[in-house]
C-alpha cells in the first residue's frame, strides 16, 4: 500500500498492490513503487521474509533501467496485538474522516470489500498494512510534522538522475472522497 500523510491529520491512500510473487519480483516491485511515489518512509513488517527484505532494501536494490542501486528509507515495524486489535485501534481515524480513498482506482473494489468485510473476509493483508501504517503514523506524528533527520534528502540524492521517473505532485489530491 502507498499512503501519503498530509499535515498531521489526513491520510490519502494512493495505491495498493497485492500479489503472490517470488522474492526477487517483490524487491523489484517495491523499488518501482518507491521511485514512483518517493515516500519518506517504507514500512515493512519485521517478521519472516520481511527481515531479509528490510536488510536488502536498506542496502539498495538494482533495477535494469536504472544506473545505480535504489536505497530506500526502510522502517522495520513490529506490530503490537492481533490484526483485529490493531484495526480497532485505528478505526477512529476512518470514523473521523482522516483516511481518504480515491473515487476511482483499479484496486478500490477489492480493497473496500476486504476493509468492510474484516475480520470475516477471506483476506486481511490490505487491512493489516493500512492499520500498521495508521498506527505508526499516529505514534510518530510529531516526528513527521516537525522534525527532519535529513535521511530523506540523502536517499533522494542517492536516487537522483533517473529521467524516466516522473514525480507525482504532493499537493494534487483531486478525485479523493
Give the beta-strand count: 5
Element-by-element helix/strand order: EEHEHEHEHHHH
Low-confidence runs (pLDDT<50, min 5 residues)?
143-150, 161-173
Give helix % range.
40-55%
Strand content: 5-15%
Query: Mean of residue pLDDT?
Result: 81
Characterize the biggest β-sheet. Answer: 3 strands, mixed
Strands in their spatial order, largest beta sheet: 1-2-5
Rounded Rg: 16 Å
End-to-end Cα distance? 18 Å
Q: Tell me the number of structural domains.
A: 1
Structural class by sheet pairing and helices: alpha/beta
The outline comes out as globular
How large is the count of helical segments?
7
What is the quaternary state of this protein? single chain
How would you explain this protein's 3D organization?
Pfam families: Terminase_6C (PF17289). Keywords: Viral release from host cell. This protein is α/β, with parallel strands linked by helices and 177 residues long. It has one domain (2-154). It has helices spanning 23-37, 49-59, 83-95, 108-117, 125-139, 141-146, 151-158, and strands at 2-6, 10-15, 42-45, 74-77, 99-100. The strands form 2 sheets. Strands 1-2-5 form a 3-stranded mixed beta sheet, covered by helices on one side. A two-stranded parallel sheet has the order 3-4. Strand 3 (42-45), helix 2 (49-59) and strand 4 (74-77) form a beta-alpha-beta unit. Helix 3 (83-95) packs across helix 5 (125-139). It is globular and about 45 Å long. The chain starts with a strand and ends in a 19-residue tail after the last helix. Mean pLDDT is 81; it is low at 143-150 and 161-173.
Amino acid at each position: 500500500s502507498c499512503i501519503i500523510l498530509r499535515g498531521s491529520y489526513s491520510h490519502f491512500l494512493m495505491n495498493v498492490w497485492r500479489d503472490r510473487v517470488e522474492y526477487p519480483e517483490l524487491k523489484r516491485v517495491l523499488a518501482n513503487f518507491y521511485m514512483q511515489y518517493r515516500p519518506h518512509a517504507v514500512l515493512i513488517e519485521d517478521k519472516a521474509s520481511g527481515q531479509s527484505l528490510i536488510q536488502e532494501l536498506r542496502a539498495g536494490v538494482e533495477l535494469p533501467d536504472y544506473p545505480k542501486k535504489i536505497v530506500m528509507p526502510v522502517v522495520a515495524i513490529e506490530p503490537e496485538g492481533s490484526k483485529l486489535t490493531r484495526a480497532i485501534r485505528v478505526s477512529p481515524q476512518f470514523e473521523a474522516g482522516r483516511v481518504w480513498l480515491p473515487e476511482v482506482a483499479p484496486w478500490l473494489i477489492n480493497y473496500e470489500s476486504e476493509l468492510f468485510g474484516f475480520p470475516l473476509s477471506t483476506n486481511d493483508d490490505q487491512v493489516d498494512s493500512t492499520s500498521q501504517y495508521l498506527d505508526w503514523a499516529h505514534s510518530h506524528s510529531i516526528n513527521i510534522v516537525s522534525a527532519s533527520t535529513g535521511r530523506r534528502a540523502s536517499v533522494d540524492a542517492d536516487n537522483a538522475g533517473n529521467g524516466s521517473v516522473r514525480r507525482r505532485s504532493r499537493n494534487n489530491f483531486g478525485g479523493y472522497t
